[in-house]
Amino acid sequence: MNARKIRIIVDKEFDEIMKNKLVLSTLLLMPLMFALVIPAAMLLPAILSPDQIGGNDTLQLTSHLPGAANMSGQEAYIVFMLSAILPFFMMMPAILPTIISSYSVVGEKKNRTLEPLLAAPIAVEDILAGKAISALAPALIGTWIAAAIFSIMVYLLTNNIVHRILVPDLTWLIGLFVLGPLVAFLGVMVTIVISSRVNDPRTAQQVSVILIVPIMAIFIGQMMGLFLIDETVILAICVVMLAADIVVVKIGSELFDREEILTRWR
Fold first, then answer.
1. Residue 9 and residue 14: Cα distance in Å, rounded?
2. How does DSSP classify residue 112?
3. In whole angstroms, what is the distance from residue 68 CA to residue 79 CA?
4. Which is nearest to 223 in space by CA: 88, 84, 92, 118?
5. pLDDT for position 179
6. Cβ distance 71 to 80 under 8 Å?
7. Among 94, 136, 115, residue whose Cα is nearest residue 6
8. Angle at which helices 21-32 and 124-162 pack, to 10 degrees?
9. Does residue 116 carry a pLDDT above 80?
10. Contact 88/97 with Cβ under 8 angstroms?
């Protein structure tokens, strides 16, 4: 790979992102929604109305929570919800990069700038790397900023109840800095390959739905009291994602055929 050529592609992609109002507004608004609206909706009922927290429903939800027997019903419910919210922060790395990368390739097709790029003496690996980095970087930065805002909000809301910092714990750190990038990379690579073969960014973005389904399944499983995300579970998911990333890179390099794309989109 040629670092200079990758850097040129990344700079060009960032310039296009700043000009696309839809992509830019999504990058700004979605992290705020996940950092403030969704967590508040899940946590505030337990904070404002602690008398309503308890009973068999709470016991079922917190049955897999370590140390729940030594916590009050309110504290156990809050700690459980923080674990349950983690999948939402895995959705951002799944959704945001696919939006950026789909508009990246399809947008260049419509603007007739993809052909000169593919015809240039740049290796396919450099093109894929440049487009992947330009989609990953803003999405991951947005996710991490949202997580930081969320952590501060959680501390301010719950410090008087649990008297300790609840997030980020080890599970959250692995989720944000290991699983998040792995999920984002998988979405980007699949979206880039699909975008190279379609002419509508919405078609390419459907890949995000595929990634969201298992993430939502994890959230639903926790809310049903079937299991709880801990270090072991999230590390196992990371291994699966890493294997999927390796497979999709190999497939993507073969399917992203520059000659076929040039011929098809003349």
1. 9
2. T
3. 9
4. 84
5. 92
6. no
7. 136
8. 30
9. no
10. no
- The answer to whether 214 and 229 have CB atoms below 8 angstroms apart is no
Asked whether the predicted pLDDT for residue 242 surpasses 90, the reply is: yes
Domain count, the chain: 1
The pTM score is: 0.77
- Cβ(184)–Cβ(92) below 8 Å: no
Q: Give one DSSP letter per residue of 173-218, joined into a string.
A: HHIIIIIHHHHHHHHHHHHHHHHTT-S-HHHHHHHHHHHHHHHHHH
Residue 109 and residue 113: Cα distance in Å, rounded? 6
- d(C-alpha 31, C-alpha 11), whole Å: 23
Both structure tokens of 133:
């980095």
Question: Residue 74: which domain range?
Answer: 3-264
What is the CB neighbour count within 10 angstroms for residue 11?
11
CA distance 248 to 232: 25
- 126-184: pLDDT as tens digits: 777 787 888 888 888 888 998 998 888 888 888 777 777 777 788 889 999 999 999 88
The rounded mean pLDDT for the chain is 76
Which residue, chain included where needed, has tokens 């895995």?
Answer: 90
Among 234, 221, 213, smallest CA distance to 61 is for 221
Residue 54: the pLDDT is 58
Tokens matching residue 15 = 């310039």
What single letter denotes the amino acid at residue 203?
T
| Residue 90 pLDDT greater than 80, yes or no | yes
Nearest in space to 104 (alpha carbons), one of 123, 126, 142, 132: 132
Spell out the residues 6+ positions from residue 39 whose beta carbon is closer than 8 angstroms to its own: 85, 88, 150, 153, 154
